[in-house]
Specification:
Elements lengths: L1 H15 L3 E13 L7 E14 L4 E8 L6 E8 L2 E9 L6 E11 L2 E9 L20 H4 L11 E11 L3 E8 L16 E8 L5 E10 L7 E11 L3 E12 L2 E12 L5 E11 L12 E14 L2 E11 L9 E11 L1
Antiparallel strand pairs: 1-2, 1-18, 2-3, 3-6, 4-5, 6-7, 7-8, 8-9, 9-10, 10-11, 11-12, 12-13, 13-14, 14-15, 15-16, 16-17, 17-18
């Protein structure tokens, strides 16, 4: 009898709960020709996003990327010309949790996000993965061998977002770090302030920039500066961005120019030139070398929620004596709902 009552109460409570929206994105690709990686398939994205309404002004969301591989952070010391592992721990950025935030909508011009969220850096870094024109994002976002990426990264904090005067899109937030501390507590007392402003003079054209600053001693001092320009309608997208970064003594700079053409609602052709210097003071090896890439390709919507894509990437390292240039082919299948 007690079990029956409990089930009845649970059923009533379930009917009273607001509906939950479920969205997802899965991307699998085959990569060939990269001199640094063996050819093969990769499950690159397996995103699940849950969201719902708590009240007329308050929403919640939580998302996961089940394709992430758990990684370790290691601490080593040099002992008699040998590296000795002294400590190891889970890299919190490699956990599958993506977003976990509450959104309070004060009015049409202002909403407040609290929790783990995408930071307001770069235009392409805030575009959903399913809508990016190429299979992989630009290099200053995806390349993270030195410090953290410069877009499409998440951090814990609070941000204000909205549209002022119906033409000025703004995002400004205070976060623990600039992406290094996602899923953890802050390792220092300094906080990172990041902002992005985009002006929309008409429905097709926008321009603006983003930036970030974190004060403190050399090992925690960080700066970000970026500019963006885009024209987009139903037929064509033209976009360019430049991003510079300061991470203590490390200086980085990248930029790209992209054009995408849509002859019809199913087909999209794309070309992008990418230039990325992961350390402007060094060209000794692939760890700090300037990399350039020219991408051409296209995608085809096989139905309203799935598409196939093919990208050919010519990758060069013009200032490194040991040649590691290559032509990479990416073939991807992706679906979203």
């Amino acid at each position: 009898m007690f079990v029956a009552r409990a089930r009845a109460q649970d059923s009533t409570a379930a009917r009273a709960l607001p509906p939950v929206e479920i969205h997802g994105f899965v991307q699998t690709y085959y990569r060939s020709g990269d001199p640094t990686i063996k050819d093969g398939f990769r499950l690159r994205k397996a995103d699940l996003k849950f969201s719902g309404v708590l009240s007329s002004r308050l929403r919640w969301r939580i998302s996961f990327d089940a394709a992430k591989a758990l990684a370790l952070t290691k601490t080593v010391v040099d002992v008699q010309d040998s590296l000795v592992l002294t400590d190891a721990g889970v890299d919190q950025r490699s956990r599958i949790l993506q977003d976990a935030a509450l959104t309070y909508s004060a009015n049409k011009a202002l909403s407040i996000d609290v929790g783990q969220q995408i930071v307001p850096l770069s235009l392409e870094g805030t575009i959903s993965t399913s809508a990016v024109e190429t299979i992989e994002r630009t290099m200053f976002i995806i390349e993270r061998s030195r410090a953290v990426g410069l877009g499409d990264i998440r951090e814990v904090g609070v941000s204000a977002n909205g549209l002022a005067l119906e033409k000025i899109e703004y995002h400004v937030g205070v976060f623990n770090e600039m992406g290094e501390a996602a899923g953890t507590v802050d390792a220092n007392d300094q906080k990172a302030v990041m902002t992005r402003i985009a002006i929309h003079p008409n429905p097709y054209f926008q321009f603006g920039g983003s930036g970030g600053f974190q004060s403190g001693p050399l090992n925690v001092h960080k700066e970000r500066t970026a500019g963006e320009l885009q024209f987009r309608n139903t037929v064509i997208t033209v976009r360019t961005e430049a991003m510079s970064a300061v991470d203590g003594p490390l200086r980085r700079f990248g930029w790209y120019a992209l054009t995408a053409v849509r002859p019809n609602t199913r087909l999209q052709l794309v070309a992008r030139y990418d230039d990325w210097d992961r350390d402007i003071h060094g060209e000794a090896s692939l760890l700090n070398a300037t990399e350039r890439a020219f991408v051409i390709g296209g995608s085809y919507m096989i139905d309203v929620s799935a598409k196939v894509a093919l990208n050919v990437i010519r990758q060069t390292f013009p200032f490194v004596s040991t040649p590691r240039d290559g032509t990479i082919i990416l073939a991807a299948f992706q679906a979203f709902w």
